[in-house]
Records
---
Amino acid sequence: MTEPTRGFSTAQVQTGYDSSTPQNSAVPPIHQTAAYEFASLADAADIFALRQIGNLYSRSSSPTQLILEQRVAALEGGTSAVAVASGQAAVAVTLLALAGRGGHIVSAHQLYGGTVDLFQDTFADFGIEVTFVDQDDPDAWRSAIRPTTRAVFAESIANPIAQVLDFETVAQIAHDAGVPVVIDNTVGTPHLVRPGEHGADFVVHSATKFLAGHGTSLGGVVVDQGTFDFGADPERWPQFTAPYPRFGDLVLWERFGIGQAFAALVKTKYVHDLGPSLSPFNAWQILQGIETLDLRVSRQSATALALAEHLAQHPKVAAVHHPGLPGNRWHGLAERYLPRGVPSVFSFDLTEDDAGGTADVHARVARVVDALEVFRLVANIGDARSLVSHPASMTHSHLNAAQRATAGISLTTIRLSAGLEDPADLIADLDRALARI
Ligand SMILES: *Cc1c(COP(=O)(O)O)cnc(C)c1O
């Protein structure tokens, strides 16, 4: 991992862009072109053979995307990054590159629903097996790792319950077994926590959420922290250490080395072959968002804590799942790993009335959710707008009661993602809606 030479706020506004082009635009331009013209046939041949780095075709990359990659790599303290069309694509290409040849993955079961579908369904089709464990159980991680395990995966902060990962414990177990650690830092954001400082080797993002920040554009990024040495056990990692036939027997580890070879494999194989490319326009939108990342996340974090504290003393609220509250199971981990602020995505449970019955519970939840006016009913997080969702009938609707219990959610659990509105308006909105039950 490399230390950023400048502060976080400076990096989020400036890193990766050099305005000394003939057009000298102050702000990064949108390179909206499908392809690039070569100076000569010799140049074209060198770029195609990876002997020379250069723009080729926008499925592989664009200059706007390269700025985004350098910027996110700097914010996460990594050495290189690959930006792709969505967070789903970032998780998929990262794990295909590590475990794609029939490898095994150990993952926390506290996961984003789309990741669960990818692991259980599509990866199973590809012959990649995933073992799910409770992320708070070190013995479960330890005993799930096999000789064929090629990655350990978890989210820095899961949702809707906002569990905080014990990064260092999980990383220690993975590294003892020679396995790299991949962390989805979508909810954490590099402003609140940089998983690379706590043992992560690769950090993935749904840039759709806090990095973009305005709910306008899909994107995903994977950052290589430059910490995992695939060359130390070459038999285990032939995708890096054996000849890469499509490039005339070039060996990625020799040509690119630690901290760069992973991005080269992801781009030249998985993005090139499967095509989940980031559009230059979306890359630019995400860059615009990142310029205010720390300001937005600090504000959202403070607002979320104020909402959580307010809800915790509300008579219609049975429980608040927020690690910023003393007494929360993950409060200690939040104090240890999140000194700059707590997550702005969290949830709370309504009290149940005495009548009981599932239909009554749903009607009770609907009365509250449908009464909200400032909070918007949207299946997204990390937007400038405050968002509400009901996991049991939306993101987690495919779970049965036992699975819901394992995930820590009930029929009355309501998820909030704090936006940038006035906190007083958000509190008044919640109070008005809760008065309906
Ligand atoms: C949204 C999300 C994803 C998937 O990202 P998309 O950009 O929607 O494809 C992955 N992980 C987490 C934690 C998310 O919230």
Note: DSSP finds 17 helices and twelve strands in the chain.
---
Amino acid sequence: MVSPDAVLQLELDTRQRQSRYRQRKILQSPQGVEVLVDGRRCLGFSSNDYLGLANHPALIAAFQQASNQYGVGSGASHLVSGHGTEHQALEEELAAFTGRPRALLFSTGYMANVGVIRALMGQGDLVVQDKLNHASLLDGGFLCRAQFERYAHGKGTAAQALLAGNSAQRKLLATDGVFSMDGDLADLPTLADIADQNNAWLLVDDAHGFGVLGESGRGICEHFAMDINRLPILVGTLGKSFGTFGAFVAGSEVLIESLIQFARTYIYTTALPPAVAAASRVALTLIDRESWRREKLQGLIAHFQQGAAERGIPVMASSTPIQPVLIGDDKNVVTMGEYLLKAGFWTGAIRPPTVPVGSARLRITLTAEHEVAQLDALLDTLAVALKTLGSDTE
Ligand SMILES: *Cc1c(COP(=O)(O)O)cnc(C)c1O
């Protein structure tokens, strides 16, 4: 018999040869602009803590106070005995924030997406998704046993054709609001029309939109000023601009009750620690009240796009804090990432299968805590690094 290790080692070797081997660095400080990573002080440009709340004193205080009051573990799933005061309050506040009748907490965004799709769709149904949707939406599509089709990124006409040419009774159109590796927005008004015309339900995962998009941070719905009835199933996460952990689905009374009954990733898992819910409640008030964070971020985004253009840096067009610099080759993106880290900038080196082959990129993320001078320093270093890379590969 060939041992598992012998078989697996071959796959690891292949991944190594392709320059796609993943290695974790150790973060020795809180998230923030100045981080300590693998013993090196550098500027962080790779977290999703867009509003700079992950290490905010008010969140920490709420977390501590709730742990004193409720302990650490929730002790059970929501349906058994783990659903506490803080969870309930957070759900009510998230419902109000999103302007929906109800919201339901999930332990992660990954579980929310898989759980919702599997709860709503099954054999004989049709699920249609953008090819660049987050892995958790795609996995929901695979796991739910419905017919699952994907359309080329952003191609509404392709989504329309897939939905129109299918006679399934129940159809779901699911999309990221902001695409996590590209930073671009889904054309929601068009997708909502397509869903309407084809009698399909629209699910929007606004993991990167909440807190950031819209004047009051209510995400992509607010950005497009859309009637909530056109977006009946809304998924949000707490691990990004909220600076905490967890996720939620917002929607109608009937949708939420259905998820409580049928979403397996809701039912069969331990509830979030109550202190995480308490900290998330404070994050929500800061998102609501401190619009300066969004305004500052928008200024930084514009500055970064312009600065990159001036220096000939191939930044992808993006109006969100996700600012990817397209490199293409897997080995080159690793080289670039290492170069930048040595120079004191921590960025994400994103390679296939996370992104399509030939589109490896540095995923640079901006937060409201960054300063213009820090962006300029990164841009200057990036320009030099790209030049060095160019002369090395010629
Ligand atoms: C991060 C992310 C998720 C997963 O959320 P977690 O809470 O980290 O599991 C889901 N969808 C999108 C679009 C994301 O970017």
Note: The radius of gyration is 21 Å.
